[in-house]
Amino acid sequence: MKKSSKIDIRDIILTVIGCAIDAAAFSFLTYPNSIVSGGLTGISQILNLLTGLPVGIMVIVMNIPLFAVAWRRFGLRFIVYSLIGTLANSLFIDLFDGFHLVFTNDTLLASVYGGLMLGVGSGLVYHVGATTGGMDIAARLVRKKYPYMNFGTISLALNTVVVVAFAIIFHRVDSAMYTVITMYVSSRVINLILYGLANSGVCYIITMKPKKIAAAIGDHLSRGATILKGEGAYSGKERDVVLCAVKRHQIPALKRLVSELDENAFVIVTESHEVFGLNFSNIAKID
Hints:
The chain has helices at about 10-30, 40-50, 55-70, 75-95, 105-125, 135-145, 150-170, 175-195, 210-220, 250-260; strands at about 200-205, 225-230, 240-245, 265-270. It has about 290 residues and is an alpha+beta fold.
């Protein structure tokens, strides 16, 4: 189910707050310590160091053609929210630049805490379905043409080009290395905000006692299970597979249950960031 096209004032406020946090990280931590940002902000940072032009204004100017191309390709809600995010982020960057405030001159601390703040800010913006423009829109446009490509991979590739360009132009390989730390921390925080701590596990249990194990999962863990029909690739024998989704903290109990009922069972546990449906997240909230 797609997000409603309705403009929500709460989402706008969250977008603006996220942009303020993002800009604060840039102005007070990463930029003063020569940690280059990815995307158009990073390109603007390079041009700022070469020409002295304001970063925020350059970000807005470079976003104009991207929005022009994206206007007909994405929904009105996405364009409006992303426009708000782009303008807010650019204005906050130029506003905070006038404070001449630096939280720390320790580059390692700046890369870690800068990544933390960038992750919180960007996470809030992405959570409501908006962006701050720039490479986010570019990555969406590329993925629309090449849907088999992963969005995260496209974004990483585009940002890597900017970071490498910074390192080459200013001979600052050390800054590029610190930037990797910032990007890593930021991505982890964004995932935390978007998916939360309560990640779930998907379990595949190949067993000779599928009904007993499925019943025990329902009785002891209050989780449903599905019995799938499989076939051994080598033996050609039919095998039953019990499929179930559980909360992460229930996985040890599930393993104990299976061990008690069938010590010869083969169990595969995979991580799942999102599970929708009964006793999990509301399926109506799927983007």
